[in-house]
Specification:
elongated, two-stranded antiparallel sheet, alpha+beta
Length: 229
């Protein structure tokens, strides 16, 4: 599935004054494809043949088809509209196509939330997000997340500082203050203060492996909930 994240007019590939909508962009992309496609709202659904060894199709490159990216998608990116692609697991039978469609859409939803807009996200690479998306009792998942990180949710709602994002990046960077500061673009002392504040608000000890695991899973639950609306 290829999704354009925007419906405002975008610069066209012709004259400088040409403008095309996101819908027109998808139509042009569909016309450029060598495979079966159908447009569904802001998305283009593409049926791709499986590659030997289960590799990505070689015509998927960083979220774009190689030819179409040069002819169409680069102008779309420049105007603030990004094309993000979700790739499902291989589907062996036609009746499993709806499940594959959901997998590709979920891959895009999660990818957009975790900062991978404009790229190709494979459902098989989503890790723990796959588990969270499959668990039926979403209320229990959310209850766990609130029990662990509820104070951060409340704090962020009333302040400009996003402690939840800071925590998630900190854990993803293997508890490195320096790397977290680099990703966030702030001073390492600011990161250190935020981590101390997080521990004070939640009573978590991020030096404790069990606490880190609980915090990481809770953060993923919150991210997946936000990603899927």
């Amino acid at each position: 599935v290829a999704r354009v994240s925007g419906r405002k007019p975008i610069a066209g590939p012709g004259q400088p004054g040409d403008r095309v909508t996101a819908e027109e962009a998808l139509n042009r992309l569909a016309a450029s494809m060598r495979h079966a496609t159908v447009i569904r709202g802001p998305e283009l659904v593409i049926l791709l043949p499986e590659q030997p060894g289960g590799d990505r199709p070689d015509y998927i490159d960083d979220g774009m088809t190689a030819g179409a990216s040069r002819a169409l998608l680069l102008p779309a990116q420049a105007a603030g509209n990004q094309l993000t692609c979700g790739l499902s697991e291989p589907t062996e039978r036609p009746e499993l196509a709806p499940q594959a469609l959901l997998q590709a859409q979920h891959a895009i939803d999660v990818g957009l939330r975790i900062g991978r807009a404009g790229q190709t996200i494979c459902y098989s690479e989503l890790g723990i997000y796959r588990l969270l998306l499959q668990i039926g009792n979403l209320h229990q998942l959310w209850q766990f997340a609130v029990e662990v990180l509820g104070p951060l949710i409340d704090y962020d709602a009333g302040h400009k500082v996003d402690l939840l994002s800071t925590l998630s990046i900190y854990l993803n960077q293997h508890e490195s203050l320096k790397q977290t500061a680099r990703v966030l673009g702030i001073h390492v002392n600011t990161v250190s203060y935020r981590i101390q504040r997080i521990e004070q608000l939640t009573s978590l000890d991020l030096a404790n492996p069990d606490h880190r695991l609980s915090a990481h899973v809770a953060a993923k639950i919150i991210e997946s909930r936000q990603a899927t609306g």
